[in-house]
Amino acid sequence: MSAYDELMAHARETQALAQVAGRLGWDQETMMPRAAAPQRAEEMAALEGVLHARRTDPRVAEWLERAEAPDAAGAAQLRLIRRAHARATKVPARLAAELARVTSRAQGIWAEARAAEDPGAFLPVLSEVVALRREEGAALAEGGDVYDALLQDYEPGTTAAELEAMFAALRPRLAELRAAALDRPAPPALSGRFDPAVQHALAQELAQAFGYDLSRGRIDTAVHPFSSGSGLDVRITTRTDPADPFNCLYSTIHETGHAAYEQNIDAAYLLTPMGEGASMGVHESQSRLYENQLGRSRAFTGWLFRQMRARFGDIGIADEEAFYAAVNRVHRGFIRTEADELQYNLHVLLRFDLERALIAGDLAAGDLEAAWNDRFAADFGYAPERPSDGLLQDVHWSVGLFGYFPTYTLGNLYAGCLHAALRRDLPDLDDRLAAGDPSPATEWLRARVQRHGGLMEPRALIEQATGEAPSEVPLLAYLEEKFGRLYRL
Questions:
Q1: 10 annotated as a binding-site residue
Q2: Is 396 annotated as a binding residue?
Q3: Where in the chain are all domains bearing CATH 1.10.1370.30?
Q4: Among candidates 445, 31, 422, 429, which has minimal Cα distance to 223?
Q5: What is the pTM of this model?
Q6: Can you give the three-state secondary structure of 310-339, one letter per residue?
Q7: Annotated binding-site residue? 68
Q8: pLDDT tens, 138-169?
């Protein structure tokens, strides 16, 4: 075997073990007995120790030095392995295992604290997680910016300063549009009780309509909807609320965007570093585009209105136009995942600033609740009513995902660019969406983005797909046009 072949064999085994670790995480959030949390923490730490040893194996450096890429895909594999190896060798094995152990434990503590509305039960372990991630970031940064070093795990090649510049261009126009929409009379919302079992059945149909292959996946329930896995085993979760079926339906479409991305990556890249999405920003571009530009479009909501009436009867909405307005209703709220399309990014920008302060040491975990509530009141004009509406609503920090939150808004920016391009290429798309068929758009995304996996760097991938460098301009134009029409601004 050549050095390249030996390296790829090693990488495939490592990726397979990483998928096992991911499956343990999926189980922890869906089916694991509550009392099993301490044991699961030890299992995750043990497996992370094995993975870290494989990623830092001295042979990897030797193979990388001698390996010759057979083609462009091979060159991309080497680029990704080289990056992962360089990062792994900077982090001590002790720290990698301890992070896995503490974050697994913290996830369970967060879930209990959220259910009990008790942030005091969660903040001490969050302080541990922050300290460990700060230590990891310092090791990776080697004297550079610690937050930037952590950001590379989710959006390679991006800095906080670059994100801040784009977000600064978004914030004032979003705030202005939000204020104008909230100043108008709110459209009617749905009313009635919506059977969770019927919601779940419709959600499954929606997932399949958007291209989710259930022979390689499954849909379960969880506190926080998520997608897990890649290749031949990609699972998603959703949640139901008898008073709010949109929570289930649009969470499912969102997670289908993530899952379809993973399922549509070229099969030749299975269980290799290229066999996953290019970045979390690109990943989020798929899920947000599926959910919003497609799923909340006037054409698709007309079809969905008819499906809702057929399954639930009277839903308190008279016609398709009123239903479209209800789906896109700008409303007061606390929960990021339930936020309307217009206000969603303001939730993300709050978290981006707070987590940078936590990692920089400018904000202590013990002061996070007050900082969150003050910032939320400043941004939205009202304060959270309970901890689960505030700092306890998201799972991300409990599992150490510092640097992840900004990729949600970056994904929205990418989605704006992709949507503008696919609309140029698919002028008759609304006819298909009105029939409940988003496949022309999802196939366009499969061909332009998803099948490539990690072949290209994130921004290069978006530019190749759209013909233009990523920017906030298409997203702002889309939001201003859509909500300007809805609210007659």
A1: no
A2: no
A3: 160-486
A4: 31
A5: 0.94
A6: HHHCCCCCCCHHHHHHHHCCCCCCCCHHHC
A7: no
A8: 999 999 999 999 999 999 999 999 999 999 99
